[in-house]
Amino acid sequence: MQVTETLNEGLKRGYAITVTAAELDAKVNEKLVEAQPGIEMKGFRKGKVPMALLKKQYGERLMGEAMQETIDGAMNKHFEDSGDRPAMQPKVEMKDGDNWKPGSDVEVEMSYEALPEIPEVDLKSISLEKLIVKAGEADVDEALANLAETAQDFAAREEGAASEDGDQVVIDFLGKVDDVAFDGGAGEDYPLTLGSNSFIPGFEEQLVGLKAGEEKDVKVTFPAEYGAENLAGKDAVFACTVKEVKAPVAAELNDELAKKFGAEDLDGLKSQISERLEAEYAGASRAVMKRATLDALDELVSFDLPPSLLEAEAGQIAHQLWHEDNPEVEGHDHPEIETTEEHTSLATRRVRLGLLLAELGQKAEVEVTDAEMTQAIMGQARQYPGQEREFFEFVQKNAQMQQQLRAPIFEDKIIDYVFELATVAEKEVSKDDLQKAVEALEEE
């Protein structure tokens, strides 16, 4: 076998690989010898079929396997000897492929873009600022008030009072389409919160301003995409009787409220809220520090990037941004999206940092554990209530999905590694200052 370099320009590499007919024939014979003991053929005992007959019967089929294995072996040996790491799957073409005849040498052309050498980075030279926000009494009180609203109850309004948006009305109703009642269109003593949008669009607004004992025909049109096909897009009339009108009453901030949220008493609930708020602040602070870390790393390194990776990343960015601007379009049924300098600039940063982080992770022997992967899968599975097992099995069989879940965990562990080596100064700031820092990230 002969491997000859044909291109070495920047990160682009090209090689001509020649596998002689004798090497292929030897590989086929090797495969036949391995298979011979298990082969049965009429007129011969198992394992006693003559090699010449086996070669005539199976040689042509085994030639393709031998060819592929030999070429793969040559490629693997090349990468092992050269130390090259291809940026993407190498392009392999067989010269005179359709015209190749058994007994001839096989000539293959292989081309790829090599991943660049990543320069050493002095992580200890990076200086970072960690924003610290304490949960103040006012923040806890505000969160408590929000909890009280979610735990609100309703109390009867004074006699003769008209309903308002946000009130709860207790109603009897009967819905008809073309004067014919339909399944699921009737209810008695139904508590409906006005403004909750739990009924058909336009329904709840028509019950605002009514008093207990009043009746009203509510006229609505079912949405075109309504789940029941026999009702979708149809006009309907609901005969409604208001039986009670109730105003929202916020829950009292006391130990009873605390117990509803799993705390022993109000002080315990306040402590829980304080811890939750500070965890949220810490998460936001980490996001700000992570961006600062990536900015610092981006400034520290410079190296050539594989054009194929840049092109693929720029195309993905352009595609994603186009869909954000055109959310009504699903799938790929749209005109070809051209990349711009802005897309390429973003792609350059992403690819450079991606390669650098991968290198740092490899040198630091960063690994994503099975437990971390299981936790990530379970977190995603919660988005599909009742189908958690099916989702888990889907991920186990889908390598691409596994990589999508593993990548952010791997990146965060590398970032944590950088945090440990960098110089980090803590700075206590207000919640508003932290919010401004987070908003600045979103604007970039």
Number of helices: 11
| Total of domains | 3
**Main beta-sheet annotation:** 5 strands, antiparallel
CATH architecture field of the largest domain: Orthogonal Bundle
**Which whole number gives the mean pLDDT?**
89
What does this protein structure show overall?
- It catalyses: [protein]-peptidylproline (omega=180) = [protein]-peptidylproline (omega=0).
- Pfam families: FKBP_C, Trigger_C, Trigger_N.
- Its EC number is 5.2.1.8.
- With 444 residues, the protein is α+β, with helices and mostly antiparallel strands.
- The protein has 3 domains: 2-113, 2-Layer Sandwich (Alpha-Beta Plaits); 153-249, Chitinase A, domain 3; 258-443, Trigger factor, domain 2.
- The chain is 45% helix and 20% strand.
- The protein has helices spanning 21-35, 51-82, 137-150, 255-260, 266-300, 307-325, 341-363, 370-381, 388-397, 399-421, 431-443; strands at residues 2-9, 12-19, 91-94, 106-113, 127-132, 153-156, 168-177, 180-193, 215-221, 235-249, 423-428.
- The strands form 3 sheets. Strands 6, 7, 8, 9 and 10 form a 5-stranded antiparallel sheet that branches.
- The radius of gyration is 34 Å and the shape is extended.
- The model has no long low-confidence stretch (mean pLDDT 89).
Break the fold down into its secondary structure elements and pairings:
Elements: E1 2-9, E2 12-19, H1 21-35, H2 51-82, E3 91-94, E4 106-113, E5 127-132, H3 137-150, E6 153-156, E7 168-177, E8 180-193, E9 215-221, E10 235-249, H4 255-260, H5 266-300, H6 307-325, H7 341-363, H8 370-381, H9 388-397, H10 399-421, E11 423-428, H11 431-443
Parallel strand pairs: 5-11
Antiparallel strand pairs: 1-2, 2-4, 3-4, 6-10, 7-8, 7-10, 9-10
